[in-house]
Amino acid sequence: MINRDALAYRPNVGIVLFNDKGEIFMGRRADLAEGIWQFPQGGIDEGESPETAVWREMKEEIGTNKAVMLGKRDGWLLYDLPDHLIGKALGGQYRGQKQQWFLFRFTGQDSDIKLDTFDEVEFTTWRWVPPQDILSGQYNLGFKKEVYERLLPDVLALYQASSNI
């Protein structure tokens, strides 16, 4: 049995991508049978800054990085993997992830979003979701629901502030 406490948190970036209607990009994961929905996110490579990683991850996960960065949530959000994923998910090396979250406004067209651009497909489908629907129970957020509950008030405040500029 793997000792959770002996494992580190994997550095990660998250992307909250708004369209011009104030809706947020959500994708249904390709690798989880339960039909989990989430925002794009991904690991920070060795020697890579979070700012560089977030642009790379956006391109890798949704096939485009036609966006303008509006801001970054202060600090890191940590989450632990559920017990059944310890030693399996994230290469079996981590207890969970520590995430820096970035806020973007999408500047492209929906047709620019291509989920199958890279060999490793993250999402099977995607949609623009009104912020109030994300935590409403319409979308299965799995074990990341608590992260989204902490994240959404902060990014919605950042979005509102950036819209008033």
TrEMBL record:
<dbReference type="InterPro" id="IPR000086">
    <property type="entry name" value="NUDIX_hydrolase_dom"/>
</dbReference>
<dbReference type="InterPro" id="IPR020476">
    <property type="entry name" value="Nudix_hydrolase"/>
</dbReference>
<dbReference type="Pfam" id="PF00293">
    <property type="entry name" value="NUDIX"/>
</dbReference>
<dbReference type="InterPro" id="IPR015797">
    <property type="entry name" value="NUDIX_hydrolase-like_dom_sf"/>
</dbReference>
<dbReference type="GO" id="GO:0016787">
    <property type="term" value="F:hydrolase activity"/>
</dbReference>
<comment type="function">
    <text>Accelerates the degradation of transcripts by removing pyrophosphate from the 5'-end of triphosphorylated RNA, leading to a more labile monophosphorylated state that can stimulate subsequent ribonuclease cleavage.</text>
</comment>
<feature type="short sequence motif" description="Nudix box">
    <location>
        <begin position="42"/>
        <end position="63"/>
    </location>
</feature>
<dbReference type="InterPro" id="IPR022927">
    <property type="entry name" value="RppH"/>
</dbReference>
<comment type="similarity">
    <text>Belongs to the Nudix hydrolase family. RppH subfamily.</text>
</comment>
<keyword id="KW-0378">Hydrolase</keyword>
<dbReference type="InterPro" id="IPR020084">
    <property type="entry name" value="NUDIX_hydrolase_CS"/>
</dbReference>
<feature type="domain" description="Nudix hydrolase">
    <location>
        <begin position="8"/>
        <end position="153"/>
    </location>
</feature>
<protein>
    <recommendedName>
        <fullName>RNA pyrophosphohydrolase</fullName>
        <ecNumber>3.6.1.-</ecNumber>
    </recommendedName>
</protein>
